[in-house]
Structures are given as C-alpha cells and as structure tokens.
Amino acid sequence: MKKTFLLNLALLVGINLLIKPFYIFGIDLQVQNRLDDGEYGLYFSLFNFAFIFQLLADLGLLQFNSRFISQQENLRSAYLPMLLSLKAVLGLGYFALAFGAAFLMGYGEAAWQILPYILLNQFLLSGILFLRSNLSAMAFYRLDSLLSALDKLLLIILLYSLLSLEPFGPFNILQFVQAQSVGYALTFLICAVFLAQKVEGPLAWRISPRRMYILLKQALPYAFVILLMTLYSRMDAVMIERLLPAEEGKLEADQYAFAYRLLDAFNMIAYLFAGLLLPMFSRLLRPLQLKDLGQLMATAFRWMSFLSVSLSIALFFYAEELAPALYESSHSQTPLLLQILLFSANAAGLIYIFGPFLTAAARLKGMNIFFAFGVVLNFGLNLLWIPTYGALGAAVATLITQFFIAITEMLLSFRYFPALRSYFSLALFFRFILGSALSFGIFYGSQFLPLIFWFKILLAGAASLLSAFLIGQLSFRELLELRK
C-alpha cells in the first residue's frame, strides 16, 4: 500500500504541479490584477460564503462514500445510484438556503450579479469530488489522478482566451465566474462518463425516501466534521468583508485573498494527499493491517512535513520580493500576511494526514468536539481582531486555530491506536528537525547569491530536497521501490 501511495502521489503531484500552479499564478492572479481594487475581494468573500453552504449539497456523503465504497465492494452498484440521487436532492436545499442567507445578510447588487454562478460552481465542484471519490474508492487511483487537474486545465484554456482576446468586451468578474461554470460543467460530465464505464450495472435515477433517510443518517457524522472544518477555515474572509466598512472590507478581503491564494496552492497538493489516503486507510483498517498502516502514515508525514516546512521557510525569507512581483496592489502588510498564512501550512499538512485517518477509522465524535472548539476559537479571535487589525488579525486567528486542530488530531489518532506511535520514532522526528534546520540555513544562504529571487528560491528548494534525502528525512529506497 505504501508503494501504491507513492506511485500515485508522484503522478498526482506531477500532474498538478504542471497545471495548477500555472492556473493559480498565471490565470487566477492575472484575473485579480486585471480587476479593480476590491472587486476580487468581494468575489473571494462570496466564494467563501458559498463554500460554507456547500456542506448542504453534500452532508458528509463524500467522506462516507470514500470509506463505504472502498470497504463494501459487493454493494457498490446498489448504493451508488441512490447516493447520486440523494446528492441531487441535497443540491436543491443548498441553493434555497444559500440564497435565503444571502438575502438576510443584505448583499448588494454587485454581489447578486455573480452569486448565482458562484453557488452553481461550488455545487459542480462538490459533484466532481463525489464522482472522483468513487473512482479512488474502487482503486482507480491513476484515473483519479489524471482527472484531478482537468477542471483547471479547461479553465486555463477558457480564461486565457477571455483575458487575451476579450471576445465579449473588456474582461470583468462576471465573465470570470461564467467561465468557471462552463469548465466545471464539462469536468463533471467527463467524470460521470468515466464512472459509468467503471461501475458494474446501470447508474439509474432512483429515489427512495426510506433509503435516503438511512444513508443520510449514516453520513451525518461526517457532515458535522465537514461543517465544523469549513466554518473554522472559511469564515474569516466573510467576516473581513462584513465586519469592516464597505470599501475597507473589500480592500482588506482583496489583500487576504492574494495571501490565501498561496496557502490554497499548498492545500491543493495537501488535499491530493488526503484524497489518496482516505480510501487507503479505509482498506487497511478493515481488516486491521497495522504494519502497512503505520508505514503509510509515516511516509505521508515525511513528505507532507518536508513540503510544508520548505514552503513556509521560503516565504519567511522571500515574501518581501514575492508579494509585489505577483500582486500589483500589494502594500506594506501583504508580505507579513503571506508569512503568517503560509506558516499555518505546517498545521494544515498534519490535518490532511490525521484527519483522513480518523475519518476512515470512524472516530468522529472526538474530532467533532475539538472542531467545535476550533470554530468557537476562530470566530472569537476574528470578532476580536478583525475590527482592529483587519486581514492581519484574521491571518493570526487562522494560524492559531489550525495548529490547535492539528495537534488535537494527532493526539486523538495516537490515543485510539497507541501502536502507531512506534512508527513515529525519535529518529523520524530528529530527521525532521535536522532537515528543517538545514532548509532554513539553505534558504538563508541563498539570499546572498547574485541571482534574481525566483532562481534563488528554485535553487534553495532543490538543495533542501537533496539534503532531505541525504539525511534520511526522505528515502531514496522508497523512490527505488517506486521505480520498480
């Protein structure tokens, strides 16, 4: 299973490093730079508003499905059509409640012009993830890896055409969200075609209220997990735009959106880890295969910790150069925003390992209790700091909340499965600390090279990767196994 994880991780990361960074920095960032100040901030706030309500279009079905389908292969063809039907019904409730909440919050005309498309896009994204979760649960990991970047590839083509050719007049935020709708709809249809080919039996539309109730009851514990995670990780952007005066709120949300974009870039890679790990953990837990499980978790920890630490160190030294180079409206607090949010990537990396494990093990009660504390903590800190410190206050609140959740998830995992501690040995943590120190020294020294900062970051990153292999933080043997 460790070899399968590494092989598909290499494919996932390879594909997504080719496509998603180009979309984030070559397309999405150019969209923000092309729009008037504050316009993208409004979009970012509405995006996070829709993201919070996206739970209603899923109610834990994605996580339940990944675990259930990977463990109950004989029931796949019987339950999948029912799950798809339930997904469609939940979508209707999602749109109704989201529109109602937006009306009560008093959004203006500019928001209502783009909100319907943003809500549609979130529903389509939820559907895409649900379809792909079935493919990974059925062990079609490579196909899932290939489909993971399809939406961004289509958006690159669509948005590049709109930005460069302007076939419908000067580019605006409405064209941006409409292009997303087209790209996501095409991706959804392609994923549906592949899934229909892989599943035995017809994917027919079936509605049975009694069975839907049973499935919802089984999925609801997962829904609470996702609801609480979404609240503590996404409420900040909405609160920035709502708590501050109108124009100031949009401008602060604009700055926060830029800094959060880099954290989202890391989260895209981290989410790919989680998407691979959840069905693999589920298979190793039933029946329990402790050795393979421990090795898989330790392997994921080594790679994730290297990626997150290297990224946060790079931003520690180069945020001052990176912010104005990428973002035309950057000002004095933008580099500090980058540094704070990207340091929280270290916590996010742990969450994307231990969260899927606890989900696969169905240890949801403990997670939900600490997630509820996380929501209260994040809301309280945002309420206290945003009116005074704006986006910086929200960034610090995110940092504190993420580390609180990461530490509690790790402790819960070791509490429920004490034997796993042996796979997280002192040697592993010593190599992690040594590798982090070497990476810090390498990035510090790279500042004195007579090169532009982009090359300094690339050279320091390559040297950090090599040092991680040399000290055993990462393993050449695992790469050789992968090659075989």
Please characterize this protein's 3D structure.
Helix 2 crosses helix 5 and helix 11 runs antiparallel to helix 13. The longest helix has 40 residues, at 246-285. The two termini are 14 Å apart. The mean pLDDT is 83. The chain contains 18 helices and no strands. With 484 residues, the chain is an all-alpha fold. 83% of the residues lie in helices and 0% in strands.
Attribute tags:
484 residues, mainly alpha, globular
Gap from first CA to last CA = 14 Å
- The rough form would be described as globular
Radius of gyration, rounded?
22 Å
Structural category is: mainly alpha
Helix content: over 70%
The description of the largest β-sheet is:
none
Mean pLDDT: 83
Number of strands: 0
Portion in strands = under 5%
In N-to-C order, the SSE pattern is HHHHHHHHHHHHHHHHHH
Question: What's this, in brief?
Answer:
The chain has helices at residues 2-34, 39-53, 61-71, 76-104, 109-137, 141-147, 150-165, 173-198, 209-243, 246-285, 290-326, 334-343, 345-360, 364-389, 391-416, 426-446, 453-470, 476-483.
Topology:
Layout: H1 2-34, H2 39-53, H3 61-71, H4 76-104, H5 109-137, H6 141-147, H7 150-165, H8 173-198, H9 209-243, H10 246-285, H11 290-326, H12 334-343, H13 345-360, H14 364-389, H15 391-416, H16 426-446, H17 453-470, H18 476-483
